[in-house]
Amino acid sequence: MGHSSAQNVFVVKHPLVRHKLTRLREKTTSTAGFRRLVRELSLLLAYEATRDLKLEPVTIETPLETMEGEQLSGKKLCFVSILRAGNGILDGMLDLVPSARIGQIGLFRDPETLEAVEYYMKLPEDIASRECIAVDPMLATGHSAVAAIDRLKKAGCENITFVCILATPEGVDCLTSAHPDVRIITCHIDTGLDDHGYIRPGLGDAGDRLFGTK
Q1: Looking at CB atoms within 10 Å, which of 46, 57, 97, 107 has the fewest?
Q2: CA dihedral defined by 93, 94, 98, 104, rounded to 10 degrees?
């Protein structure tokens, strides 16, 4: 995993990630293909995001003898989906960590004030004692990621990782300056944003391509 310029930003350089990301970007990729690729990329991103989970010893019986193994210690992880496109990333992550808890945060941008307005939020009651992985396929301007993480911190979360498929330099700067303690894990940092807020070269609208709404 390569570090980018910011100390807390990790770009996953794995050959499978790079290959699948190329297929994901292609405009000819079908809705079904897009979903499958997002799921596969999510699994690979979750593998990186869970690299530092704490372990504890556990005594088990193999078919041959008793031995000391290791298991995850402490409360179960919480994946937090930033609606709606974040839901596309949950499936792959849950394949890897089926016992994780799930939170969801829905935000839209007020066209007048450009502030992120919350329209839905449901988090596990004891989220403050869990490690949180917030997910959204795209880190574009960074505003909704910052707003979502503001709310997670308000709920008491201290250990937060943000996972996305694509990021922009602006989005990374926005998120790292607001929340320097949050790790960002992504497949690629693209060139930047166009006038309409789309990531270039990007992959179009992740939500539309996941849910077939275009």
Answers
A1: 57
A2: 110
